[in-house]
Design brief:
The complex is a heterodimer of chains A (159) and B (462).
Chain A: H1 3-7, H2 26-39, E1 44-46, H3 47-58, H4 62-70, H5 84-95, E2 99-104, E3 107-112, H6 114-125, H7 131-143, H8 146-152
Antiparallel strand pairs in A: 1-3, 2-3
Helix pairs in contact in A: 2-5, 2-6, 2-7
Chain B: E1 3-12, E2 17-23, H1 39-49, H2 66-69, E3 71-72, E4 81-82, E5 85-93, E6 99-107, E7 114-119, E8 132-136, H3 149-156, E9 163-165, E10 171-173, H4 176-179, H5 207-215, H6 219-253, E11 256-259, H7 267-271, E12 276-281, E13 284-287, H8 288-304, H9 310-372, H10 381-384, H11 405-414, H12 421-431, H13 439-443
Classes of the chains: A mainly alpha (159), B alpha+beta (462).
């Protein structure tokens, strides 16, 4: 079909659905954050810790992170990537009052509210979704302490 | 065997010399005397002269009564005189008839750890003493050192002292002090037990049994040693066998294989060794002799036949070479092409597989997101109803909505006063430009081209 053919024809536009990556969907990411906070100690985690777990799950490097945390390979480097979409999802979580801003070990941290705790329980209740992610989150959230976050970020240990 | 020939005790005070001389004969000797006249002193003097007082106990005190050590008097009524010097001498013989005289001081200038010896029967027959040789006792090494008296005594008696285990895991010779309680019985507290107590301070395991075995010359110790020797010999032979076997197998592997060599040497092999070297010949394993026979036959055959000359064969062979060379070139070219194609296909395949994996992950996540919709407003209205929790306007279903160029253009015109807008504009567009509240975005010249994916632009974290 040539351009002249096109010029002489009637044509119309129709809206097509735009494909959205699954991990950029709000429900998916908010549920993941709920799982992270719900698995953390006292339903609270620093923003840095959330970023680390998020990065590990998105890049599929849970095993590498676990190796680093186990302490057997001290010299394995960990390059943290900060994802804008994640920051936005955190904004939504706070906006929905599922969690509130607080402080943990001198860092900005999120603390689940009552609604948030219910939401986290509800996420765990959906058994057939986020199976691998929830398992990974549950393990990593327990392994990473706030001191460990400092070590991963390359902070100098205070004497 | 040890034979005592003569015992001499001397104890000198300032005024006179006391002492006793007891000659012994071969066989049983009985010493008879009233109480407290020195029978026990004589017996203990023998022990002392042999340096064996530690077989009575671990103390290092002289086991002689005070008459030999401190003070002495001739009759009960007399006052005691101080002993200035005293010594014990003993003449002994061994099974070969060699005679030696031992001298050990009790009180005097010399150390009590010193035992002097002279060869010859100078004590019993009063002949001049021969060459003197000094030994030590009670110090470490007296049983093993060349100058140790017990080493000398064991050698003199022709005793080959067995090596025995100690409680701490080390080994030591069976000390003479451990053996002599079996040979010396001092009756002081009745005859309920004849054998004296064995010294335990030497820390030898099972000392009573070891001494019995040695004195009675029982076979067990020898058997034990012999068994250990045999075991060592067997293991050495096994090692040699396995070395040789490995060497032979390696050598055989260069031409074929070897059969009939067991992992362990056996009696059957010793009686009738069946070694067989086999070669892989025309698709099957054949014995070397058979191969040799076939090869010899072939050689004879070839020698008998006439060989084609070079002139006759050359044209044919050259034609074949040319033909084959051109075939080879064609095949090489094809190979290159195929190889390149294969590489490209492999790369494509890998890329596709990667893409499929990514798509599968994405599908899984999308399905998960769909399932999570079941939670309804549990995860908030942004997730379920696409409404911003702060400004209550619509948000797209996507965390980072893609922005088309038209929208980006409208933003640039609206914020062109800011010189840094070129840099931050893409970020802004994801947030502010989607907001329905922005009248420019809606009413701007290009507003009609918006695809309608509206999104709130408020900074939720405010």
């Amino acid at each position: 079909m040539t351009e002249i053919d096109l010029a002489n024809r009637r044509f119309s536009f129709r809206r097509r659905p735009v494909p959205v990556p699954g991990d950029l969907r709000i429900a998916w990411r908010v549920a993941l954050i709920m799982a992270m906070l719900g698995s953390s100690r006292a339903n609270r985690a620093s923003l840095a810790k959330l970023h680390i777990i998020n990065d590990a799950i998105r890049s599929g490097q849970q095993d590498k992170l676990k190796t680093i945390l186990s302490g057997t390979h001290a010299a394995v480097p960990w390059n943290l990537r900060v994802e804008p979409a994640f920051a936005r999802a955190v904004d939504f979580v706070v906006g929905e009052k599922l969690a509130i801003w607080t402080k943990a070990t001198g860092r900005a941290a999120l603390q689940l509210t009552k609604t948030g705790v219910d939401a986290a329980a509800a996420v765990v209740g959906v058994e057939d979704a986020l199976v691998e992610e929830r398992a990974a989150v549950a393990e990593l959230a327990k392994l990473i302490t706030e001191t460990g976050v400092g070590a991963l970020l390359g902070e100098k240990v205070r004497a | 065997m040890i034979q005592l020939r003569h015992l001499r005790l001397r104890s000198f005070t300032a005024t006179r010399a006391f002492g006793a001389d007891i000659p012994f004969e071969a066989g049983l000797n009985v010493v008879q005397a009233p109480n407290t006249s020195g029978k026990s002193t004589c017996l203990q003097a023998i022990i002392y002269a042999l340096g064996l007082e530690r077989s009575l106990g671990p103390q290092l005190t002289v086991p002689l009564p005070y008459a030999m050590r401190e003070q002495i008097h001739q009759f009960k009524e007399d006052p005691y005189d101080l002993v200035l010097q005293s010594y014990v001498e003993l003449e002994i013989a061994n099974a070969q008839g060699e005679i030696v005289v031992l001298h050990r001081d009790v009180v005097g200038d010399k150390s009590t750890k010193l035992i002097q010896t002279w060869n010859g029967p100078s004590l019993s027959s009063e002949i001049p003493r021969g060459e003197q040789r000094d030994y030590f006792v009670l110090d470490g090494g007296s049983a093993t050192n060349e100058s140790g008296f017990h080493a000398f005594l064991a050698q003199f008696l022709d005793w080959d002292l067995p090596i025995v285990a100690r409680y701490d895991g080390t080994e030591c010779p069976l000390y003479l002090e451990a053996i002599f309680p079996m040979l010396f019985v001092e009756q002081k507290r009745g005859w309920s037990s004849i054998q004296g107590p064995f010294p335990t301070f030497l820390r030898i395991q099972d000392v009573a049994r070891r001494v019995m075995e040695f004195l009675l010359d029982l076979e067990t110790a020898k058997n034990r040693r012999r068994r250990a020797e045999l075991r060592a010999a067997i293991s050495e032979l096994l090692g040699r066998w396995s070395d040789r076997r490995k060497g032979m197998e390696e050598a055989a592997a260069r031409v074929g294989r070897i059969r009939g060599l067991a992992l362990q040497p056996s009696a059957e092999f010793a009686a009738a060794p069946t070694l067989d070297l086999q070669l892989y010949y025309q698709g099957e394993w054949t014995r070397l002799a058979d191969v040799l026979q076939i090869a010899t036959g072939r050689v004879a055959e070839l020698e008998a036949s006439q060989v084609e000359t070079v002139e006759q064969a050359a044209p044919d062979i050259q034609a074949r070479v040319t033909d084959l060379r051109s075939q080879l070139d064609a095949l090489s070219a094809i190979l290159e092409a195929v190889r390149g194609e294969y590489g490209a296909e492999t790369q494509d395949n890998a890329a596709l597989e990667e893409r499929v994996a990514a798509l599968e992950t994405d599908l899984k996540r999308n399905q998960d997101a769909q399932k999570l919709q079941r939670l309804g407003s549990e995860l908030g209205r942004a997730a379920s109803e696409h409404v911003c929790p702060t400004c209550h306007q619509g948000v797209s279903n996507e965390l980072l909505p893609t922005v088309d160029s038209v929208e980006w253009h409208s933003m640039r015109t609206s914020r062109s006063s800011n010189p840094s807008s070129n840099f931050i504009a893409p970020l802004c567009s994801t947030r502010a430009s989607d907001c329905r509240r922005s009248p420019r975005a809606i009413g701007g010249p290009n507003g009609i081209f918006r695809t309608g994916s509206s999104n709130c632009g408020c900074f939720v974290r405010n």
